[in-house]
UniProtKB/TrEMBL annotation, chain A:
Species this chain originates from: Tistrella bauzanensis
Protein name: Homoserine O-acetyltransferase
Family of this protein: Belongs to the AB hydrolase superfamily. MetX family.
Alphabetical list of NCBIfam families matching this protein: homoserO_Ac_trn, PRK00175.1
The protein's assembly and partners: Homodimer.
Active site positions, chain numbering: S152 (nucleophile), D318, H351
Alphabetical keyword list: Acyltransferase, Amino-acid biosynthesis, Cytoplasm, Methionine biosynthesis, Transferase
From TrEMBL, chain B:
Domain of life: Bacteria
Taxonomic path: Bacteria, Pseudomonadati, Pseudomonadota, Alphaproteobacteria, Geminicoccales
Protein name: Methionine biosynthesis protein MetW
Species of the source: Tistrella bauzanensis
Gene3D superfamilies, per the entry: Vaccinia Virus protein VP39
SUPFAM superfamilies in the record: S-adenosyl-L-methionine-dependent methyltransferases (SSF53335)
Length: 381, 225
């Protein structure tokens, strides 16, 4: 059972009169943004918290996922009495632009042609995703978000919000993220994309026209990525070299080891809920993300004059977005005497720790949200 | 059961006397950086009672997490590496309470303090306190006192100094001493105008208010009026 029975799903149609300009030079409109809300907006609309999801997440932050039937991806953190308390806050979580859970993306119909966009869809960036979210926030009549919170790619969006619209955000919580995507991370993404592109069912991205899907390629992409979300210790503890349903090695290429079987399962279950072209677009958006480059190569310039209260959190065994990335952001905010909290949390669970039940993590988010609420003058209902 | 907590007029736990003295030197609503803020007792007081824009730096993960969980703005970092990232005059007051002796380069730290803050308040254990002197003289061993409770092999303190040493370092660093106090182990003032032989002998803790001296050398900002 989800912690918040009061959640609701919506789709907003935005950029209807005027298409939204994109970083790539093209523009897009109308745009559908699918989102869920939890909790109630207060009278002066000052208690809204925008949750930004990671690469393979979506708007179903809490409550039962309509496709998988599983619990929301952040039930540990969001809900009544949880660190992001839906008894107090009005939580909004939107499927990103370029996503495939109801927001406009490569699997949507191109209104000009009446067919699926496929790879004709314009390249979107993290800043474009945030632009679309801002249209949604405007649409909801919210002047200033109390907080923007997210991990991994969601953390990139949080940073982009704080940098693009500092006056529209009171507090920002970028978790397990970076101000730019590293070469190693781009390299992993490229492996995933090439797996999709190499799948004969991909058909240059026009697989919808052929009534098929590059599921094998997408599953391989997911398997590769999934390894980067865990730590060596987490994999070792979970699987070691244990064999799957057998006493001895097959001396072939079946899934002899539990870890293989686990990854295959991850890959197969992913293709049921995700679009391959979406995966290409979203990974590309992350690759292009570099806040410093957008500010003359000096990260601190992005935060100059900002009054946003930041809380950066990293995890000690995260090798995808290691602590040094968060520390770099904290130092850049310090360099302009901004308001920042930063801590690393000790855990052996890797990058995915932000999605798991980590009591210290929950306590920190909770404390930060309470402290920020006190400073924002948000009174408890 | 722990000892009963004494609360002040605002309903907050009363500060340790040396922190109370220190808090009294910070004007309300000031921009303050507390370096080595521990579990955030002083920071919390400055933030909630004095309405300061109070930030902290703390080395220990536990301390930082304690602070952030209390809603305070604290980064995990250390005084030897993280001060360089702050701009000049970022704060009205920079506090370094009982931490100087644990830094790698106290000389560079002091220069940074008066660079990033208009004022710096520094306190440290005085190694020339008579009990320390007596301990070493009579027992021939590294002193262990209330203010310096560690054994020589597991102490975080790597650069212990005396009040006289500190005064000399300030002079050599073009740092102006605005106020100098010698305190006892309870944080009570035993001597004002402390840079003297008496304070050096009788003070268990030295507490100094520092300012950047005009015409600072060594590549630091010299625009201070």
């Amino acid at each position: 059972m989800g912690p918040d029975a009061g959640g609701a799903s919506h789709i907003a149609r935005l950029a209807v009169d005027e298409a939204m300009p994109l970083d790539c030079g093209r523009s897009l409109g109308p745009i559908d943004i699918a989102y869920t809300t939890h909790g109630r907006m207060n009278a002066d609309r000052s208690n809204a918290v925008l949750i930004c999801h990671a690469l393979t997440g979506d708007q179903h932050v809490v409550g039962t996922h309509p496709v998988t039937g599983r619990a929301g991806w952040w039930e540990t953190l969001v809900g009544p009495g949880r660190p992001i308390d839906t008894d107090r806050m009005f939580v909004i979580c939107a499927n990103i632009l370029g996503g495939c859970m109801g927001s406009t993306g490569p699997a949507s119909i191109n209104p000009q042609t009446g067919t699926v966009w496929g790879t004709d869809f314009p390249l979107v960036t993290i800043a474009d995703m945030v632009r679309a979210q801002k249209l949604l926030i405007d649409h909801l009549g919210i002047d200033r978000l109390f907080a923007v919170v997210g991990g991994s790619m969601g953390g990139m969006q949080v940073l982009q919000w704080a940098v693009s619209y500092p006056d529209r955000v009171f507090a920002a919580v970028p978790i397990a993220t970076a101000a730019r995507h590293s070469a190693q991370n781009i390299a992993f993404h490229e492996v995933g994309r090439q797996a999709i592109i190499a799948d004969p069912q991909w058909h240059q991205g026009r697989y919808a026209d052929h009534d098929t899907r590059p599921t094998k390629g997408l599953a391989v992409a997911r398997m590769t990525a999934h390894i980067t979300y865990l730590s060596e210790m987490a994999l070792h503890t979970k699987f070691g070299r244990r064999l799957q349903d057998r006493q001895r090695m097959s001396y072939g290429f079946e899934a002899d080891f539990q870890v293989e079987s686990y990854l295959r399962h991850q890959g197969i279950s992913f293709v049921d809920r995700f679009d391959a072209n979406s995966y290409l677009y979203i990974t590309r958006a992350m690759d292009y993300f570099d806040i410093a480059a957008d500010h003359g190569g000096v990260l601190a310039n992005a935060f100059r004059g900002s009054r946003v209260r930041f809380c950066l959190i990293s995890f000690s065994s995260d090798w995808l977005f290691p602590t040094v990335e968060s520390r770099t952001i904290a130092r850049a905010i310090n360099a302009v005497a901004g308001n920042v909290s930063f801590t690393e949390i000790d855990t052996d669970r890797g990058h995915d720790a932000f999605l798991l039940d980590e009591p210290v993590f929950a306590r920190i988010v909770s404390g930060f949200m309470d402290g920020a609420a006190a400073h924002a003058g948000l009174v408890r209902p | 059961m722990g000892p009963a907590v004494i609360h002040d007029a605002h309903g907050y736990p009363a500060l340790r006397p040396d922190l109370d003295l220190l808090a009294g030197m910070v004007e309300p609503h000031a921009r303050v950086l507390d370096i080595g803020c521990g579990d955030g007792v002083l920071l919390h007081y400055l933030d909630r009672v004095k309405g300061c824009d109070a930030r902290g730096i703390e080395l220990s993960q536990q301390g930082v997490q304690e602070c952030v969980a209390r809603g305070l703005s604290v980064i995990q970092g250390d005084v030897d590496h993280d001060l360089d990232y702050f701009p000049d005059d970022a704060f009205d007051v920079v506090v370094l309470s009982q931490t100087l002796q644990a830094t790698r380069r106290p000389d560079l730290v002091i220069r940074n303090l008066v660079r990033i803050g208009r004022r710096a308040i520094v306190s440290f254990p005085n190694f020339a306190y008579w009990r320390c002197r007596a301990y070493l003289l009579l027992r021939g061993r590294m002193p262990r006192t209330e203010g310096l409770p560690y054994a020589w092999y597991d102490t975080p303190n790597i650069h212990l100094c005396t009040i006289t040493d500190f005064v000399r370092l300030c002079a050599a660093s073009d740092v102006r001493i605005k106020t100098a106090l010698a305190l006892d182990s309870h944080g009570r003032v035993v001597r004002r105008d402390a840079p003297g032989a008496y304070a050096n002998l009788m003070g268990e803790i030295g507490m100094f208010v520092l300012e950047r001296a005009p015409r600072i050398s060594g590549g630091l900002d010299d625009t201070d009026a």
